[in-house]
């Protein structure tokens, strides 16, 4: 585990604004790039929605990209969804042009289920959304497989030195 998940608080507003003001980070999002006021409203709404809407969004500052943080966070969220909250199905959507996001969803074991046409209006027009999902039994199989893989990959002889 490389990422530690915790609820967002209003004290995180500066850290959120660090990415929310950047066009490249917001490219496939419905909102942004934000003014400081827009980020304050966004964080306030996200904090208020915490207990009522089981919905997440992955966004990292650019200098954090490509370090498997989103993959690690997604794995932890799936574990919470299936182990703690006993869900049967978890789904995710992303812009088809957002290759990094699609890679994360596949890497955590989700299956591509198809493309929904023109679901969201963003700055450059109506965008399609790719749908990915994983079922509880698929998650159990994949985590069991990963565990067996880990055990099989362990050296049979303890490394010396
Ligand atoms: C999408 C996002 C959350 C991914 O976070 P991350 O921590 O960089 O993701 P990871 O490092 O765990 O994995 C990224 C994967 O995409 C790949 N990738 C990264 N940038 C890529 C690019 N420009 N083109 C193709 N693949 C890319 C990586 O190689 C990796 O795949 P791999 O595991 O098969 O090697 C991050 O890029 C981000 O914050 N983007 C802006 C906000 C956003 O679009 N969020 C998603 C909303 S649906």
- Roughly how many Å apart are the termini? 26 Å
Sheet/helix structural class: alpha+beta
Number of helices: 6
Corresponding CATH architecture of the largest domain: 3-Layer(aba) Sandwich
Mean of pLDDT:
90
Kindly report the name of the CATH homologous superfamily of the largest domain: Gcn5-related N-acetyltransferase (GNAT)
Which stretches are low in confidence, meaning pLDDT under 50 for 5 or more residues running?
154-161
Percent of residues in beta strands: 15-25%
CATH topology of the largest domain: Aminopeptidase
Percentage of helical residues? Answer: 40-55%
Domain module tally = 2
Sheet of most strands: 3 strands, antiparallel
Describe the structure.
The protein is α+β, with helices and mostly antiparallel strands. The protein has 2 domains: 1-65, no CATH class; 70-161, Gcn5-related N-acetyltransferase (GNAT) (Aminopeptidase, 3-Layer(aba) Sandwich), CATH 3.40.630. The chain has helices at 13-20, 23-26, 36-49, 69-84, 99-107, 136-153, and strands spanning 89-94, 111-122, 125-135. Strands 1-3-2 form a 3-stranded antiparallel beta sheet. Strand 2 (111-122) and strand 3 form a beta hairpin. It is globular and about 50 Å long. Residues 154-161 have low confidence and may be disordered. Coenzyme A (COA) binds at residues 25, 28, 57-60, 65-71, 94, 98-101, 103-104, 107.
Present the secondary structure layout.
Layout: H1 13-20, H2 23-26, H3 36-49, H4 69-84, E1 89-94, H5 99-107, E2 111-122, E3 125-135, H6 136-153
Antiparallel strand pairs: 1-3, 2-3
Helix pairs in contact: 1-3
């Amino acid at each position: 585990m490389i990422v530690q998940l915790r609820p967002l608080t209003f004290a995180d507003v500066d850290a959120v604004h660090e990415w929310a003001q950047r066009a490249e980070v917001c490219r496939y999002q419905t909102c942004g790039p934000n003014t400081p006021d827009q980020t304050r409203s966004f964080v306030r709404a996200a904090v208020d929605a915490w207990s009522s809407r089981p919905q997440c969004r992955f966004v990292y500052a650019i200098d954090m990209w490509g370090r498997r943080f989103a993959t690690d966070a997604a794995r932890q969220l799936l574990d919470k969804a299936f182990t703690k909250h006993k869900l049967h199905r978890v789904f995710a959507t992303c812009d088809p042009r957002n290759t990094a996001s699609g890679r994360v969803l596949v890497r955590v074991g989700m299956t591509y289920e198809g493309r929904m046409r023109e679901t969201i209006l963003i700055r450059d027009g109506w965008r399609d959304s790719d749908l990915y999902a994983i079922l509880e039994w698929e998650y159990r199989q994949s985590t069991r497989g990963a565990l067996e893989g880990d055990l099989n990959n362990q050296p049979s002889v303890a490394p010396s030195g």
